[in-house]
Fold Energy-coupling factor transporter ATP-binding protein EcfA2.
Amino acid sequence: MDDRLGEGWGTVPRAERPLELDGSLLTTFAADLRELRRNAGSPPYRELARRSHFSSTTLSDAAGGRRLPSLEVTLAYVRACDGDAEQWEQRWRAAAAELHVSTPVSDAGTGDDLTAPYVGLRAYGREDAELFFGRERLVDDLVARVRRQRFVAVFGPSGSGKSSVLRAGLIPRLGGTVLCFTPGSHPVEECAIHLARLAGELPGSVHTELAGDPRAVHRLVRQALAPEPASAEIVMVVDQFEELFTLCTDDQQRQRFLALVLTAASVPRSRCRVVLGIRADFYPHCARLPELVEAFEDAQVTVGPMAPEDLRRAIVQPAVRARCTIENSLLTTLVTQVHAQPGALPLLSHALLQTWSRRKGNTLTLAGYQATGGFDGALANTAEAVFTGLDEGRRTIARDLFRRLVTLGEDTEGTKRRISADELDDDPIVGHVVAEFVQARLLTQDRGTLELAHEVLIKAWPRLAGWLAEDHDGQRTQRELTEATAAWERHGRDDTALLRGPRLAVLNDWATRASAPNSKESTFLNASIAAEQREQAAKRRAGRRQRRLIAVLTVLLLVAATATVYATKAEERAVLERNTALALGVTAKVTKLSETNPSLAAQLSLAAYRLAPSPATRDSLIASSAEISKVALKPGTSAMPDVSGNGQTIIVSAGEQDKTQLWAVETGDVHPRAFLAGGAHASVSEDGHTTATTDRDKRVRIFNTENTGQPIELATLPGTYDSAMVSPNGRLLATSETVHEQPYPFNPPVWRFTGTVRFWGLADHRQPRETGAMHAVNPRSFVGNRAFATTPYIDPANPEFDDNSVKVWELSPDGAPTVATELQPSSAPPGVFHFSALGDTAVSAPEYDDYMAIWDLRNLPQRKRIVEKLPNKSLTAADFGANERLVALGGVGEISILDVVTMSDDGIRMKFDGVAQGVAFQDERSVIGVSLGTGTDVYAWRWDLDPETAAATVCTKRQFSILPVEWNAYFRDVPFQPPCP
């Protein structure tokens, strides 16, 4: 066949050497490559070289038929001819495998040389220590760590070789007695088995001891080492510690095992050191356990990726021990691929094992490595080869087997699961399937257990990954069935361990669809179904008998029931009436009792409310809870208390001492804080962050009181003033100056007061700016943050001079007064007129009239009264809730809560001694108040409007628990029921 050169090459084509088709694999492979080139239009080899970046000679030799070209050259040739690279890669691997498998075993040497120097997927063990290379520095560090500290945790990603480091690196270097095991599904039992062998005792008795005392491991170790020198110690290596979270489902057993190993390492005079091997992605699971977090401090060793030089030692030195060599090209390829891929050491070991089986003489070659499927494909090819060699029935068995051998993770990768021989059917076909995969070193068998050789198989074998992704819920259901079957077997197949109800239905439905339960699981399901059917049949028979009996007894029961109901109702009415009478009687006595014994009074109020809930007992409970937790404030004479609108800050100005004390209300308790200069008058903003005081020299100071313990004086106003008021948002200040007018010509003479109200902007609290002034008498308060209210001086002796109106002055954005709107609450002096923080609602109580009014102030100037008349309770303070629906009304000896929408007269009423000077809602469920009593007594109160919250306050604040004798004195004929358990 001629090699036709392309146009413009300017050289004479040379003929391609003809093939001698002898039917061999090589000549057939070469002939098909030439056919591929011919179908592509017979491009010259120089053109193919340009396309593939291989020389024309290399490409020509690939189709020469003398030897099998490398995989890279083959794929480059195919791509240059627009062929199917994936199909040709499979064909090349088949050819390479056939050519190398046909090499006589004798070519590889004899005797010990036939023992593989690589372990494949399984971890290196103590018996493989002479073949374990590349981790010398890490092992040295780990040995030093274990010798200087009693607890070490070794972390590493799956496939990083941490188990090999522990078993083939650390343990042979330690010497002495080493216990090495994995937790499994019953970690305490597993620990007991190994300790029993060490102590020469029965595992059952050791397990009982371990389950009962966290120090049991410590005692057993000391017992075992009693004949040894004092320096002798035992090292406990717990590998695959993550099984504590994947296989162990009993949280109590998990906590017990943790206590055992941690106590063994930390107890005084310990002779045990503990090393844990943990997969890195389970660190978050460990971090949820405080005892492990504490133990991990300065005790962690990380198994990271191997450096290139360490990888070379791990690859080359085992081969040297087996008197084999590694092709440089193979070594370079392996180091490059493994160094760039985390968790790849099991894949490397498996690929080396497969390559060793295809060695040429005593040399491991790149071609042999590529014939295995390469780094990524060797493991998958091995697994596929075993699987595809099975018939259809055995493949189904293999699928179900591998699903049992993996535990699916919730937020981690899947982990391998060790199963016992009891979980597999005693069937020769199942045994044959297991033997096939064990022989291929994909599964490992040890003392009646079976598990994956390594977890890397979960990701490296696509078919297995596909099985696991098919039905997560089904696999968890299968695991539940397996565990339930095992529990049934452990209890001697007792019927009480069988399933019933919805759980049985779910498992049976899965088994019907999946057809994957083993024979024991099927027996368990059938027994559960039969037991449930027997129970249902028995229930049906019992139901029929019961219905007949009911029919006979119905007439008799109707007669008896009628009499019983009548008697019961009569008894209930009597008990209710008795309880109500007792509760109301106790409530009447509680107010007086609270003066001398508030703790007993509060508990009696709570007991009365529990016995007969009603508005009266509820109010008594709320008042008693406030009484038991009230705080006495002693500022001195001339005290004027008030509370911020949010109920968080209390101010008490004391004129005699010319100072104002701050109190903080925190979690229901009142705490004294700092003092402010100025005690003639004080005002605080809604949030308690801004406070203004006026001293006896009429100087006004402004403070930042956000931190009540460390207030900051911000400014002093120029001039002198009688009082100062802070707006709810703390951005405006109003000061008043009062002067005397000439007396009117009456006998006796009458004096009238006039004055000026000035407004100050507090955008910069350190530099207050006067924004406006107005002539007014008796400044009342801010109406929200946008208006200000004043009232005239009232002279009761000369009503013709009285001006009883309340004026509301609109404030411009900068705080200057503009238009005044007049309110006319009554012909009587206005008395108390309290505005809400938003300025939308107000409550007024004329001084000499017998009613109160609620005002709607939202539409200026058309303000209107919502209610014309409400009973006047000597209103001295008021505050609206956040949504302005509830209003707290304070007066002499009482605070009541009123719903301004429904105007219900059945509101909450709290009794106390003194006069309310300030009230504030902390929230819709609690009110803070301050009251002024006789002399200099000032009290701070907290009323919990919710009865259950008030009950909790009573039980928290009580100084003692009520005694039976005290109970009987008030609740005669009622069994003793302590209100606070």
About this structure: Residues 1-14, 101-113 have pLDDT under 50 and may be disordered. Residues 25-102 form a domain with the 434 Repressor (Amino-terminal Domain) fold (CATH 1.10.260.40). Residues 519-593 form the longest helix (75 residues).
